[in-house]
């Protein structure tokens, strides 16, 4: 009966979030509120819907109706859809020229309408949804339908690269550790964004910002606690991080040892810094009876993981 | 049937509309507004759409305008009666067409209403204890109660009654079930009280409510980031840079008052 399908529930009850399809179809649903001009091929008095009154419909006279209504009528061949003012080659070309220009950092805002050059016409918020629906349903109502799709795709591509630049700039301004641990609370994204572009970045960007905020607050709390557990953990972490290479090389040497399974050649193959003290002292046993190296731990150094695990952990490197 | 139509007409704000062109009529032009460019959508329907979009996009519960919902339900009922009457007296292809269109529109509006209510219920279910506790007058909440960074940040007061009376009934029933479930599965296996030398620090391990020592009740995510659009120029401290039509990616806690006041609309 109805060819325009409704989007899945936005509450997503019981389902994991396979959000993309649901969100895009919701944008399509919202775009169907937009109005288009239609020339009906039938007569009908005023139709009273919950959303408003449309009509009266007289054959041959233009009427403005919502998009869902227009598409439904068109599918039953009861009308002809007048292409919207912005969905024509001339206008889209001017949009494209604006977006192509590398000097224009902001999005396209408006250009003179092809029908009425004195009024500026913006690109509609749902332009992708509307254009897709119209070009799929009634390409024959357009003067040059084949030229429109490449234009729209080019515009979409240029805008998406612009929007990713804007987002890159935004991510550079986020710095959770600017002194007082404050993450900026709001960002001005300016205007000109369209529905699908917003959909694309919103989910990821919001989650990212929340994560950064959480980290900033966590770090703040760590600083405040100071000599407590988290401070001790931080201090210990730093000591450990000072000599990562030493630890890693130790594992590598021990794994090589296990592979070779020899008890000889323990002094000749070493090149690690903390082995030099042992190399200079050939009497100190560096390998015990299992063929595992004895860790040479200096005072104050944190004990690394036992080298027995060198073999098992090797595969994670 | 004619008087039914008349009744519907009375309920609608628009009356007979004469549309001129698509781009002119909104204060927020078609490019910026996410609600369609129809010049005079019925006031109630437009209110429903706005409320739906905001509710879907916001992390916490928003105030519900019960009048709008009751009117929409009434309109839906009327429309359904109309449709059943029409379906029994289909004469010409035009009437069949009318019937078809009415049915589609009915589906759409029902979907929006159902989704709106569904989203609210889901939000209530997630944080039942918090919403019910916040239902008392003058409840104050603190953003990030576990982070005492900004001690100077005064706790914000939530003005009550975000739930409708039916939702409140649902929430209370849900809380009962939830508490019973928690008791049966986990809590009854824990010792009832843990005594402390200082009596005020006695822990009641079987309680789901807040105690002095523990903050068991999760608050909804007020520190989530949302994307919104300004419908008017931003005013007040820090918002001067925002003009009408600008998008803002901000913390929900900061934007909440603006959304409730109608200055900002959220993008779902």
UniProtKB/TrEMBL annotation, chain A:
Q: According to the UniProt entry, which residue ranges have a biased composition of type Gly residues? A: 228-238
Grouped into one coarse class, the protein's main location is nucleus
Ranges of compositional bias, category Low complexity: 263-278
Q: Where is this region: Disordered?
A: 222-317
Q: Does the keyword Nucleus apply?
A: yes
Q: Which UniProt keywords apply?
A: DNA replication, Nucleus
Q: What is this protein called?
A: DNA replication complex GINS protein PSF2 N-terminal domain-containing protein
Q: Name one GO biological process term.
A: DNA replication
Q: State the taxonomy lineage.
A: Eukaryota, Sar, Stramenopiles, Ochrophyta, Bolidophyceae
One GO CC term on file: GINS complex
Where is this chain's protein located in or outside the cell? Nucleus
Regions of compositional bias (Acidic residues) in chain numbering: 286-304
Q: Which family does it belong to?
A: Belongs to the GINS2/PSF2 family.
Q: Where is the DNA replication complex GINS protein PSF2 N-terminal domain?
A: 28-81
TrEMBL record, chain B:
The reply to whether Nucleus figures as a keyword in the UniProt entry is: yes
**GO biological process: any one?**
DNA-templated DNA replication
Concerning Gene3D superfamilies, the annotation shows: 1.20.58.1030
Protein name, as recorded: GINS subunit domain-containing protein
Localization per Swiss-Prot or TrEMBL: Nucleus
Q: Specify the domain of life of the species encoding this protein.
A: Eukaryota
User: Its principal location?
Assistant: nucleus
Domain GINS subunit: residue ranges:
93-182
Enumerate the UniProt keywords alphabetically: DNA replication, Nucleus
Q: Can you name the source organism?
A: Triparma laevis f. longispina
**Alphabetical list of Pfam families matching this protein:** Sld5
Q: Name one GO cellular component term.
A: GINS complex
